[in-house]
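pasting for ref. prot 1 ->
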Amino acid sequence: MIGITGASGSVYGVRLTEILLSMGYSVHLVISNAGWRVLKEELDWTASSREEMLDGHFGSLPGKLVYHSFSDIGASIASGSFRVKAMIIIPCSMGTLANIAGGISANLMTRAADVMIKEERKLVIVPRETPLHAIHLENMLKLAHMGVSIIPAMPAFYYRPQTLEDAVDFVVGKVLDILDIEHHLFERWGE
């Protein structure tokens, strides 16, 4: 399950979705209203026909994409009885992170994250904000204490990325690492 919020860096969520679908995984996708706005601003995606846009971008990949409306609080992924391996919110805004840390389930994304925590399933948060203030850090620490994996969108440079796509793939690769999914998105130290 992937959530894309209104934080800058929507390319991270799109790239992770592409990779998982290309590997044949089923991906349940939730995009916040602000996430759609950022997709438009950063990647020129239009939000007027959301399902058509998603099908045009991801439809040729072998995996199965299931899109859930951000406001559909009754969707399958809102229930603890729905089996899912992991949820990744990439990028994750500080507002979404704060709602999850506070147990506020006001929309499908935060409800699904709440379910992942209560069912003790893998929840990965990829915050994308700078600079960070004490409340941001306290919310991340609170979630880390609950077993949530926090992977800030911080690319490395030891492998000498040549393009922006290389830097994006490093962050996406770190998410795949924590999910124990084999990949070759970046050169590992010592390889």
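and prot 2 ->
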Amino acid sequence: MSVELRHLRHFVALAEEEHFGRAAERVFVVQQALSNSIRNLEEEVGVPLVLRTTRRVQLTPAGQEFLIGARETLALAGQTVERARRAARGEVGRLSVGFVSGLAFGGLPEIVRRFRELYPNVSVDLRELTAQEQEAALRGGQVGIGLMLLPVRDPSLDSRALWRQPLVAALPAAHPLARKRKLKISDLRAEAFVFFPRQIRATYFDQVMRWCAAAGFTPHVVQEAIEVPTLLSLVAAGVGVFLPIEFFSRLSLPGVAYRPIEDAPIVDIVAVWRRGDGRNPIIRAFLTVAEEVLRGDPAEGSPK
């Protein structure tokens, strides 16, 4: 059977108008074309669907039953077309987002909240992963987009800087340096440090070490930890000082004081995706929301 949607539209118009002329005007065809369309439809179905009189058109019992199905089919077709259009705009579907742990304290909550407000029919799956784990998950297709610190060098991945943040000093609250409003990196020359293991965040680690080397010293790392909250807890315990990105200061722990540092390096917070996936409308939509939120547009809300 080769019933077309236009046949159904013509039939529904005729059933509702009960007149060939008015129905033809409604679907923007000439009356003869509408009559031929209905005749072709009846031939396909194999039974009469309308009774033609000089005054009006009436449906046969078969036509009345066919009208129910025709309306349902047209409604479903309309929904299917709209769903495809919404998918092309990135308004429906699923997105898996990888993120490094620190972003949970600044940026990520605002991005995800705003994205869900704008795209309620996109399911967002959040996965806390290190940068190295995110890169592997992106290459393997387990994650659609990743949020991490500093650019990636993998040629199979694309990235875009979303937000720039300076490093700050996290000090034990009772530390003498906490009485100063602003520090120089050289003020920390004699301090014990707590920091990430290099194998976990090599780029971040190397950037800090170069900065300190330029100031004439190498940080004495006395304790390592993988997660930012753990490192800040060590600071609170007086084990050492830490150099986090500014937005980590949102994590207000008793016993920790944050101070800006003159000429501190700026660290990029980047979005990363598999090369070629940037055409995916959901990824494009997520990137747009992330950039707007992290810029602090008033209409989008600010993480600051």
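Confidence is low (pLDDT under 50) at residues 297-304.
The chain has three domains: 5-88, 92-163+268-295, 168-264.
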